[in-house]
Write a structure and sequence with these properties.
Layout: H1 9-12, H2 34-41, E1 47-48, H3 62-69, H4 82-92, E2 99-102, H5 105-116, E3 122-127, H6 132-139, E4 143-148, H7 156-162, E5 168-172, H8 184-193, E6 199-203, H9 219-223, E7 228-233, E8 246-249, H10 255-260, H11 269-279, H12 282-305, E9 310-311, E10 317-320, H13 326-335, E11 338-339, E12 341-342, E13 352-355, H14 359-380
Parallel strand pairs: 1-11, 3-4, 3-5, 5-6, 6-7
Antiparallel strand pairs: 2-8, 7-8, 9-10, 10-13, 12-13
Helix pairs in contact: 3-11, 4-11, 5-6, 12-14, 13-14
The structure holds pyridoxal-5'-phosphate.
Pyridoxal-5'-phosphate is lined by residues 51-52, 104-106, 130, 172, 176, 203, 205, 233, 235, 241, 246.
Length: 382
């Protein structure tokens, strides 16, 4: 087909119609595709350790549930999602009226922003943290205050000061990209002192990796009417990132508002079926959690043996600090077939964020890191 000639974007004037706050906001940049990287570095079958996707395989029952549900693909999903809400409620201790299903936390971040933020409202974000909060808040025209972390940990004291006069505070717990988690008592003290009129949005994408007894339980706080909205996902421990499924736990008063800013049939049938299959067996989930934690801690120990420090992680990734130029570490690892995240993307020069997969894979990653280290010593001298 012949492609039509494009008028230069500057000549259309169409951007003038876009909301002013959007004119300077950059869309999320996913980086080069695997195919591009394979061509650029001349390697095949690159393993993705850059997006904290699950690398342990589908949980039992998920594939069968999806295959069974595909027969109902001609029908819109049931809009109230009552089976899903009930099962989430049963597993989390929430009331079904506190659950808002969505196609992932990403969708919920935008829903929260649409529901609460007017242009000029102030939002507090830690730094570093998951980048989408900033994009969504800036796109809405909010005033974004970044609060630098201290030694890889959220500076809750500074966040509380910044929260004076703010509408929203985002807390990612465990935080991305550090893997650091708040102790339940730190969280309780933070919530206690949160200024009146401020709502805290807690992204618990990685909370499923924390041992159940150490996890802050925020459902009771939400039920109590405290100013907390919790965001959860099936993209990490449950391993269905590609199907897009998550939910918010919020006060029943807020759920209709979150639902009102999402599309009516926002969650697809296959995602719902897969998500419910994941939730059916808590023992299976706990077994998977332990498997990931063992692989993660084993990998951190391997890096320690190479004299590469890591920050203690409660998630499915580790933040390693090999030092030097993280771009060179990144390239050395891509050439060996492993794609990781450069710390400099988060303002953490010299660091790498590496997703954890099964033990055998992580042994190969550690060997590749040792080889890159040897190569770098070769360049730099001993
Ligand atoms: C902190 C955090 N929140 C949310 C997400 C994305 O969640 P979802 O796939 O549910 O949109 C990610 C993905 O990496 C993440 O790191």
């Amino acid at each position: 087909m012949v492609s039509v000639p494009l008028v230069h974007p500057d000549q259309t004037g169409l951007r003038e119609l876009v909301r002013p706050s959007l004119r300077t906001v950059a869309a999320y940049d996913p980086g080069p595709s695997l195919t591009e990287l394979e061509v650029r570095y001349g390697v095949k079958d690159i393993v993705k350790l850059n997006w904290n996707e699950d690398l342990f395989g589908l949980l039992p029952g998920v594939r069968e549930a999806v295959i069974e549900e595909i027969r109902r693909a001609p029908l819109y999903p049931e809009q109230a999602y009552s089976d899903f809400r009930d099962l989430v409620a049963a597993r989390t201790g929430a009331d079904p009226a506190m659950v808002a299903p969505a196609h992932g936390i990403q969708a919920l971040v935008f829903a929260v922003v649409a529901a609460f933020l007017n242009p000029g409202d102030r939002v507090v974000l830690p730094k570093p943290t998951y980048g989408l909060y900033r994009q969504a808040c800036e796109a809405a025209g909010a005033e974004v205050l970044r609060v630098p972390s201290r030694e890889y940990r959220l500076d809750l004291e500074a966040m509380l000061s910044a929260a004076q006069g703010a509408k929203l505070v985002f807390v990612c717990d465990p935080n991305n990209p550090t893997g650091d988690a708040l102790a339940p008592e730190e969280w309780a003290a933070f919530l206690e002192r949160l200024p009146h009129g401020c709502l805290v949005i807690v992204d618990e994408a990685y909370a499923d990796y924390i041992a159940p007894k150490q996890r802050p339980s925020r459902v009771a706080e939400v039920a109590d009417g405290r100013p907390v909205v919790v965001l959860r996902t099936f993209s990490k421990l449950f391993g269905i990132a590609g199907l897009r499924l998550g939910f918010a736990i919020a006060n029943p008063d807020l759920i209709p508002c979150l639902d009102a800013v999402q599309e009516p049939f926002n969650v697809n049938r296959l995602a719902l079926a897969a998500g419910m299959a994941c939730l059916r067996d808590p023992a299976m989930i706990e077994a998977r959690r332990r498997q990931v934690v063992a692989a993660r801690d084993g990998f951190a120990a391997k890096l320690a043996a190479l004299a590469i420090p890591t920050w203690p992680s409660q998630a499915n990734f580790v933040l390693a600090n090999p030092g030097g130029d993280d771009g060179r570490w990144y390239e050395g690892l891509v050439r060996r077939g492993f794609l990781v995240r450069r710390g400099s993307e988060f303002g953490l020069e010299g660091h790498l964020r590496i997703t954890v997969g099964p033990e055998k894979l992580m042994t190969a990653v550690a060997s590749a890191i040792a080889a890159v280290a040897a190569e770098q010593r070769g360049y730099d001298g001993p």
